[in-house]
Each structure stands twice: as C-alpha cells, then as structure tokens.
Amino acid sequence: MTSAFLHQAIPPRMGAASLLDVRNLTLDYRTAGGWLNVVNGVSFALEAGEAFGLVGESGCGKSTTAYALLGYRKPNSRLRTGSVYLAGEDLFALSVTELQRVRGSRVALVPQNPTTALSPGIRIGQQITETMRAHNIGTNDVARDARMLELLGRVWLPDPVRTAQKYPHQLSGGQQQRVVIALALACDPELIVLDEPTTGLDVTTQAQILALLSELRREQRMTMVYVTHNMGVVAAICDRVGVMYAGQLIEDAPADVLFRAPRHPYTRGLIDSVPGLQQPKRGRSIFMRGLLDRNALPNGCQFAPRCTFALESCFINPQRLEIIDDTHEVACERNSEIANLVAAQPPVEIVYTDAAGARTDAPLLTLENVSLGYGRGGLFANAQRLIVRDVTLEIRPGETYALVGESGSGKSTIARAIAGLNPLSGGAIQFGGVPLPSRVQGRSRETRRAIQLIFQNPDASLNPRQTVTQIIGRPLEMFFRLRGTELRERVASLLADVRLTPAYADRYPAQLSGGERQRVAIARALAAQPRLLLCDEILSALDASVQADILDLLRDLQARTGIAYLFISHDLAVVRALADRVGVLYRGVLCEAGQVEEVYTPPFHPYTEMLLSAVPEIGKTKLRTIVRSDASLSSSFNARGCPFADRCPRRISGVCETTPPPLRRVSETHALLCHIPLEELRNIVPDPIDTP
Amino acid sequence: MLRRLILTRVLTSLGTLLLVSMFIFGAVELLPGDVARQIVGREASEQQLQIIRQQLGLDRPVVDRYLSWLGGALRLDFGNGIISKRPVIGIIAPRLRNTLILALAAFILYVPISLVFSLLSAGFRGRHIDALLSGVTLVTLSIPEFVMGTILLIIFASSLRWLPALSLIEDARNVGEALRALLMPALTLAIAMSAYAIRMLRDNLIEVLDSEYVLMATLKGLPRRNVLLQHALPNALGPALNVTALNLVYLIGGVVIVERIFSYPGLGSLLVDSISLRDAPLISAAALLVSATYILANLAADVGVLLLNPRLRTST
Amino acid sequence: MTAVPVPVAPIRSRRSFLRRRLPTTFVLGSIILLFHIVVAITGPLWSPYTFNKVGTGKPFENASTAHLFGTDGLGRDVFSRVVYGAPTVLILATTSTAIGVVLGSFIGLLSGYLGGWFDEVLMRIFDALISIPFLILALLIISAAGATAAGSPSLLIGVVAFIYTPRIARMARAVALDLVTRDFITAARARGDSAWSIVIREMLPNTTGTLLVEFAVRAGYAPILIGSLGFLGFGIRPPNPEWGLMISENRSAITTAPITVFGPVLVLASLVIGLNLFSDGLARLLGRSAQFGAQ
Description:
The structure holds three protein chains of three kinds. Chain B is an all-alpha fold. Chain B has helices at 2-29, 35-40, 46-56, 62-74, 88-123, 128-142, 145-159, 175-209, 212-219, 224-252, 255-262, 267-277, 280-308, 310-313. By secondary structure, chain C is mainly α. Chain C has one domain (86-294): MetI-like fold, CATH 1.10.3720.
C-alpha cells in the first residue's frame, strides 16, 4: 500500500464549460405538519476535473442536494423550483427512460452505507457487470468481466478474481466501500457524487479510502462532489468547498482560502469547533452559540439566532450569496465588518489549569492485568477468544484518561467491565483502594453510585416513555431518596449544570435533539454524584459544533467538581482536546500509554503512528498515510506475539509474530510495547512504503 | 453453519412434537368416562371391569402408559378403537391421506391468490386498489371459516348446483369428481389463509421495494424490470415463505371446521366425532397426527427460509 | 446511505397528538362497536321476544315483519335470540382476551428479560402449546373438563385465555428481547435496579402501545373462536342463544329459510369487522401496524 499525497491542487481541464450547474435548487419534504423546506436556493457550478466538497452538519440538506445531482428526490418531496444541469441537460426535466440512461453512466453515486446498498443475494462481480450491460459498455460478457476485474484491482481489492465471486456480506466494511467505488467507476461517468462514503469506517480504513480516491482523481481527473461533515476530510481531498446551513449554501470558496480565511460566521464557528491533533485544549468558538432550532428560523438569515454578531437587520433580510472576489462567495452581509471586528479583538484565551503535574494522589481506579472475554469468565475463559488481554492502567482522581482504539479494540468492553456489566476473565480491578466486585449485584450502593456510565447513542440511552425529570430523578430517588419538591429542585439544578433550562424538565426524549439528549444523559450520570464517569464514545453521534459544546461542558464540570473521566473514543483529535493521559488499544492490548503530549509526539508505537497519520486534518494538505492493510475479517488472533504484527509496517519478521513485545519505558509516565528499540523509534521519520 | 442451523431446527421440532404428545396424552387422560365401562357396557360387574382394565393396561402408572403409547405411536400402532374395536391406524390412515390431499389442494390455491393480491397491493400502494384490497381482506378475515364455507355451499351447491354439497371424496369415481369434491373445502381454507397472509406479504414487499439496495439499483441506471426481477423479488421470497409459515395454522387447524361443513372424510372431522364418542385411542391418535402435520409443515417452511437466506447459503 | 435523510420535523407537544385527524378505520370500527355494545346493553328492553320463548311462530319461518330473522326449529324468534346473545359474545371475547393479554405479557416480559434456563424451558412449553392447532386444543380441554363444566361461560373464557396466553407471551418476549439491548436498560442495570423494577418501570411503559393493539386484534378473533366452538357444539350449552350454535342449529333450513342462518352470520361478521377495523385504526393512531395472524 502506498503512502499517498492527497490534495494537490489539480488544475481544471482547459476550456471546459461547466460540467455541473446547479441553479436555485429548492426542495421540500412532506411531513405530517405540511411541507418542510429542506434545500433552499442552492446554486453552484463545477468544472470538469474539480472536486467540490459539500460540508455541513446533520439536517443541513447536503445529502438531499447530493441525490438531486442524480435527478433523484424522495417520493414524499417536491421540487419547488430550480434545476440541475449536467452538461447542459436539466436532469429533473428528463423522462424516466432518459434518466435511467444518465444514471450510472454519466453521473454515479457512491452511497454512505455500502452494506445496505449492495444486493445481498447477488455476487459482487455481477453487480458491477450488470451496470455495464445496462449502459452498453463493453462488447460482450468476456470484455465486461475483464473490465470488472480490472476495476476491482484499481480500487486495491486483493485477489479480484475471488472477490468477484463473493457475496457482499463476505466482505469487510472497507472492502464493501471499495466495491461501491468500483461500481461507480464502471461506466466511466463524468461526475461522481460521494455521500459521506467513509462514515462508519475506522480511521485507518478511512485513510485508505481517501488515499484511493485521491489517486483516482489524479489518474482520471474525476469530477467529484464529496458530501461530508468532516472538515479534515474536505481539506484533504477537495479543491473547492461549499458550506451548507439549514438548507442554504452560505459560503463557496477554494479549500485553502476557506480554511485560511473563512468569511461566514458559521464557517468560522464550524472550523473553530473542530479540535486539532496538535493543538492544546482550547475554548469555545466566539462565532456561534446554541443549537439549531427548526421551529424558530427567522425570515432573514437562518443562522442569525446562533450568530454572536447578528443584528436586527440580519433577522429580517434574507441573505444571498454575494461574490467577494473571483472565486469566493458568502451569504452574509456583514462578513467584511465581522472580519475587521475580529481582527481588532485580541484572541480570547481560555486557559485551563493543567494540573497534570500535581497528581500525586492515590489512584482512584486501577486495572491490573485485566482480561475480558465473551460471556462468562473464570473457567470458561479461552485465551484464544479474549477481547481484552492483560490490560493495566490507573486513573487518578480528577483526571481524564482517554482510551483510544478502533473497532474491535475492546475499549467498550473495558468500560462495561468497570461498570460491572462484564465479568473478568483474569486480573483485578480496584476502586478507591478496595477490590471492586466484578458484577453490579455484588457492589455496595456507594460503589454503584460512584461509578457512572454514559453511552454513545443518545437515542437509545434514554427511556422514550419517561420525562426528563423521571430520567434524571431515578438515580436521585435511588441513591439519595429524594422525593417531591426536593427532587424537582435538584433536577433543575442538574439541568442548569448541563446548560439546559428548567423548561426541559417535562419533555420527552423524542422532543429533544441529539445534543440535548446527550446532555440529559450526562445530567443523569451526574445526579449520582459519581467520582468516576465512564464516557463510551459519547460524542461520536453528534455534530461538530455540538461536540465542541459538550467538550467544553465536560471540561467545566471536571474543573468544578474534580470528577475523573474514563473517556473512550476513536477520535484522536477530540481526545487531544480533553485528555490528560491516553492509552492506545489494539485488539485488546494496551500498546502505548502516557501523558497526552507524550503519546502524540515521537517516539510512537507503530500503531499510534499509523493512527495519527491517518487522521485527516485542516491544514494537513499532505496526508501521508502508511496504512498497510485492512483490519482483516477473521484473522486468527495471535495469542503469542504482538497483536499488531500482521499489519505493522515496521515489523521484524520472525520476531514480532512469535514473541510478545517487551515493555519499553520512555519516561516515568510513558511506556509502550514494541520489539523495536526506543532510539530507533525516536529517530525514524515515517517513511512511505511502496509495496501494496 | 447452515447445516447446523437446519439440524437445530429439526431437533427443535422433534422436541416440540414430544412435548405436544405429552399434552395430548395428558388431556385425553383427563377425559371423563370410564373406558372399561364403555367397552363392556353398563351392566358389567366390577370384576369384569377389573379384567378389562388389566387387559388394556389401564392400571399401570401414567408414565408407563404414556411411554408405551408413545412407543406405539412411533410404530404407527395406536391400539384399537374403543367403539369400533378395530386398529386405530386402519381407521386413521385413509382419513389422514384425505386431509393431506385437502391441505395440499388448499396450498396450491393459496399461492396464486395471495401472490396476486399482495403484488397488486404493494405495486399500487397508496392508491385506490390498495385501499380496496385492504378493505376486502379485512372483511374476509373477519368472516369465520364456518361461515365462509357455508356461504360457498349455498352459492355453489344449493343455488348453482355446480359442485356437490357433500365432499365425499372417497366415493369419487374419477379424478374429475374428486377435484369437484375438493374444490370448495380447499377454496375455503385457501381464502382463510390468504386473507391473513396478504396483509403481511404486502408489508414485506413494500419493505423490499423501499430498501437501500433497490434504490441503489435504480440509481445505477438499471431498467425497472431488472431492478424488480433481479434485485427485489429474490429478496422477497424468504420473507414470503416466512409469512406462509406463520399462517399455516389457518390451513391445517382449519380442517377441523371445514371438513365438518362439507362432510369431507378427513382427520379433522374424525377428531370431532371421536371426541363426542369419547374414543380415547382415536382422539389421541388423531390429535397427535394433526399436530404433527402442522409441526412438519412449519419445519418445511422454516427450512425453506433458511435455505433462501443468501447469507447462510454462502457462509464463510 | 442514510439515503436522503428526513430532516427533524418540528417538535410537537403531546397535546397535538390528539388534535390529529383520527384514522378512518378507527372511527368506523368504533361506531360499529358502539352499536354492538348499545344493543347488548339495551337489547332485552326492546327485543320483540325473549330468547327462549318457544312457538312464537311456525318452525323455520322466513323473514317477516314479525320475525326479522325468521324463526328457528323450535319456533323461537331468531332476531331476539341474536340480540340476547350479544352480551354473551362481547363479555366472553373481551374477558378472555384480557386475561390472556395480562398473563401473557407479564410472563413474556419477565421471561424475555431474565433469559437463561427459565426462559428456555418456558418457551419450549409454550411453543408446544402453540403447535397444537387452537381448535383441537380447545376441544381437548373442553372435553377433559367433563360434562358438568362443559357449556359454562367460565370454561370458555378459560379455554380462550389458555389459548391466547402462550401466543401473547411469545410476542411480549420478543418485545422484551428487543428492549433489553437498548442502552437505557443497561443504564438501569448498572445502577443496580432489580429485575422486577426494570420490567415494571422501564420496559412496561414501552410496551403498552403494542399490547393495546395486540389486545384489540386478539379480541377481534375471539368471537370467531367462540363461534366456531359453538358451531361444533362445544360452546355454551343450549338453550343459550350463542351465535355459532344458532348458525349450526339452523343450517338444516338454509335453503328454505336462509335468513335464519344469515342473520346471525351477518351480525357476527359485523362484530368481528368492527373489532378488526378498530384494531387497525388503533394501530395507525399509535404509529404501529396491526398484525392480524394467529401465530
């Protein structure tokens, strides 16, 4: 697998007319309450060979716009006005047969979820060749098969011949996504629309897909519209960026310009919200506040309710895209004023007392050689089937320990074990200096109170039939025997702690947004006044701006109450913004652990190195990734050697697969498991390896 | 993987059958009435009754009797009928055959009826045809089988005189007459089962039509015909079979009533008659066999669903 | 492919839920049911004869102004008998279904939540009971109950409840199994809530909608079940005016005085149609789909 240089500015083909011309696209959805506007007057144009990124948070209409580029709109929708011209043809004016001919051959879609997009009962190869046949590509079946195999090879799928015979469920997520990309390329379309194609994939897999896309762009001069909510990805792969908010396109600029000097307050706020890998903890954005409330959208600028710079006139006057200079358009009448205002102000520094050095208290939680398996522990533990192996870590009071890893690393299992929901197969856990019973039933009320768990998916973690008061009140009732007015008062104060007004007390989860629900979940956990909060990917399901808000909230709470966090995440940038110490997990083994600054700078464990290199970031125009191969579907777990051996680009053959790596101490607080000596790890600059 | 699943399913069915046999035996045990007295007559003396009881093994403990009954059942030897004094199996065998023929005929009618109407409903969803069909199926499933059968009898037997009022299939002299005897009872059962199935089939079809992969196929530019035939329909077969399995009870359980109405000489009417007559061996045998038929039919459908599941057919 | 996601609709308060237009099926069903209930309650006040008055006319007379549904074999007015039979059907159907639903859901929820061998054994037993086609099971139980009990309403209620309980338990268990995976149940477990508390506080409120619809659907089938048993002669003892029994009794006159059969048939069918429309409408109202099927 090659390391790839992503995003080199690719000049558009000379003398090209606009390949794609979207004019004033306005779409409504039919809901129980009438017509809801989803896309509002979106206009942009693309030259051949350009890569256009469409960014925005959930609900902004970017996916709907993307599908419109194929002439598709949902059955319960209407095209109020506007058109989509592909090389001069209005897609929404075409007949069904004409549209069928355009789709797949001139414009193709790479959907978000490849697992559901591929037909379960048809072989991979066949799904590709049938498209070719439908569009008369290739003279006969033999030619089509040959081309299909070539395509599979081009998307870096190992062993195309065998893969073509497989069914979708026999492939991994990353492999399925590559198949879908091959499918899109099958008929050599003029335009490819990608709808968040790396959602749900691991960071390393995502890096591979991005590298692949970048290479394809270079080789074929593909014209792309790339829809995503991830700014880093956009920075890595797109020439131009369009930012959407509440159905409108509010800024349109070349990528480097947008990230260097954004003009719309929302764009600035969004960029601010995204934590960076190498930046220390930072404060909240000065450009926006609050959450999108679809019931309270003014007639004027849709962003005004959240804009810190909004004036009366902003609420009244609808904003249209205005040209600032040749390539940059913004839909904000105050954009130059704001730029001047901000430049004049001194930067607001929010400093958090980094008490990392002053941690000499006895540890709050210790895991010693903890191993976890499926189901029952003890006698039934099988070394080959352990999810977590021999993990040792400790968390001190008031600090944030982050556990980082991809899917299958066992990080959630550890959290559940600490919460008492998963029995230990080996090792021991101590809490507050005392052994912690491995099951909830065996724990005292005090202990149960002191350790609280928050989950990833805010939709599933709140009982849909209970009000906010009932949800938050249950632990109050259970642990503190509060009732009646006392209870309600305490609930109100907890709501205030998570920055929600008392009006939320009688609402049901269905009436809350994702970010609000997550705050209620946090309030519920805080109600018990815990000493340790286990946060299991609690930010993953939230938009960037909401994430930033909640991160800020968590920091604030920790500073005030001295609560400790075990913060589990796959997002290295978020971890950088919040954690004091970090542990990196791979396949159940703790590969590296230390203070956050130590872990994020060399020397790295090779896996940490791979992870860090795979994260796309604003400002990282050259994303060099050394991701070697997919996390394989079912490789046998190497019980003896290093778990990372089969994917490690630096492995020492003969040694790493067979012998367990030794513990190497980098400093008093930083250690990692690797056969490679520290001096070597310190000095090596990550090198591209060109073997596939 | 697939083999293991099928095996598990088969074993589960056998286990269920075993439990069912216990229930049936238990229920028949509880039937009031002294078997011995039934055989010998009212005037019998206590001594005579005792002898009979010993002969029939009625004085052995329950578990013993159950096991020997079960053993006999496995060999298809259910003893002798109390009233008829002939081997039960001789009485039951032709009835079982007739009921199986009826069930098969009903199934053959069920398939096109349910498919056509559910396809229409799903294809024209939201439009008038869909609402009309929905209403018609609702009314149909609200009509008990004994009513439906009676209505068909009146229309076809009494008024139009196209079909015989009594479905005495055994008296049929050729295939044509046999079919005419079968038609109404089979149709009644098929209609009953279809009424329930159509709703579920429609929902399943709509789910497939709305699926992501069907949308993707459309967005790939495939002609509608290909999308439906190659992407949609094959994935609808498994759920359709599942729906059939769920509604089998109307087919097989319904024979009890339907055979009664049309005087069809099957196992269902035998069961009802033998209950009235308190003929224990006959009751238990008939009940067991009908239940076994039901369990086996379900098993066949479930195995079919497993086989149709692409993930299982091609497991790594 | 979140495929063209539906954006978050405007937040509604609970109250607007009632202001929404009621589904047509719900309205129709309720009207029919109301009609039946009114007839059942007030019937004896205005019906032309009592149900067992013999010889009000010649046997098997056809429809006339004096006898809307004709007379049966004993000269009794069929219309009056139908009217007098209404409360029986309603009470039998609703009571037996209610018992079945209550028992079935508690057992099913608990079993689904607890899992383990308790769940396994219980479900095996229930599966076996479900595998005996219900009419056969009913016949067996009724005959096993003996001559004295046979024909009593409580036996019928017991039989129908006995038939429904395992089926509803299986459905409730499926709901429980689905709920158990949700994080809010895990949160409750991590708090140390007892199994009982979790079932009652956390799970039950999430099942009321499904159970309500289930109750309506099963209650819709109950008259058919009871009618079928009556038809076979295993239902309520004569001279009680049970509809199924009536239909069976009058069958001999089906060519000469068809109304004596079709009268009760239409009334029975209308009750079931009403119940089914009501279930369908209720399901739509609660945002679910009504599964009509005896599995």
